[in-house]
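Translate structure to sequence.
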């Protein structure tokens, strides 16, 4: 398998040079030999780690590290999450060409190569306009929230499937266009105690995800409330077909505010990111 991985990697590097790609993106745990990863003048190397995985100094010196949740994803799902986080972090912009390698970690070999033009690949990103998603303001907050959503989608809560909405940014307007369904469980706590970047808060968020309604967060990660009913909704002719009530609510609130919404589908485990009333990216839960 190491021979196959080495051949795939060398082919990807050569292709990146030939097509003048911006970067080569691959998962660090699939790299066959650390000496194959070296600084490149023609393109950037993006090494994707899972769940904060530590890498040797050699990797960090010659590549940009991009961390994603340690959850089971399809090959396309692996690329989607990495590209989405890369866009929010400012690593990729519209028009960039990226060579992506992926595979199945438990099989320990690379078996898929994708060449992507950011902003044109609707199988990866369903929205052509990627500029608005980069204006979230705090990439680490968006990344943490997306991680929590993917973990909830993959693992559920206490053996049960979970569906919920996280609305990030433009919180004052979002609060005006919504109403409380339960007593606010975050009321009275200091901001640092209810910031999504506080690792102690993760289990609380997951526990409260079983409550009906949406989480509303400031763009700096402070949770304003949970159990919020989003009153804004698009007219039925305006939103994509086949969406459930959570997705319609997310499309509605993001169409009239500057917020981003992350929705977990309880029925399918798919995680969808909404901006400007449209789905920016949809990450499917792999079949078991």
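Result:
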């Amino acid at each position: 398998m190491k021979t196959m991985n080495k051949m795939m990697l060398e082919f990807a590097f050569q292709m990146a040079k030939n097509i003048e790609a911006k970067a080569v993106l691959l998962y660090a745990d699939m790299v066959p030999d650390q000496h194959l990863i070296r600084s490149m003048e023609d393109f950037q190397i993006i090494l994707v780690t899972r769940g904060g995985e530590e890498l040797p100094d050699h990797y960090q010196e010659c590549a940009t590290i991009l961390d994603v949740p340690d959850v089971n994803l399809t090959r396309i799902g692996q690329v989607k999450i990495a590209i989405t986080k890369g866009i929010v972090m400012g690593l990729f912009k519209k028009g960039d060409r990226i060579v992506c390698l992926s595979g199945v970690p438990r099989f320990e070999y690379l078996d898929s190569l994708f060449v992507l033009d950011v902003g044109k690949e609707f199988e990866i990103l369903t929205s052509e306009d990627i500029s608005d998603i980069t204006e979230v303001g705090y990439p680490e907050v968006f990344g943490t929230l997306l991680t929590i959503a993917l973990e909830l989608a993959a693992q559920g809560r206490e053996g049960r499937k979970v569906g919920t909405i996280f609305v990030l940014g433009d919180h004052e307007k979002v609060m005006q266009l919504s109403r409380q369904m339960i007593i606010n469980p975050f009321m009275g706590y200091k901001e640092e105690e209810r910031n999504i970047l506080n690792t102690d808060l993760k289990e609380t968020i997951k526990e409260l995800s079983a409550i009906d309604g949406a989480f509303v967060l400031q763009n700096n990660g402070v949770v304003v409330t949970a159990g919020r009913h989003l009153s804004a909704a698009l007219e039925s002719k305006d939103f994509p077909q086949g969406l459930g009530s959570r997705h319609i609510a997310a499309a509605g609130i993001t169409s009239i505010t500057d917020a981003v919404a992350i929705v977990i589908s309880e029925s399918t485990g798919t995680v969808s990111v909404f901006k400007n009333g449209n789905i920016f990216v949809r990450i499917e839960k792999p079949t078991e």
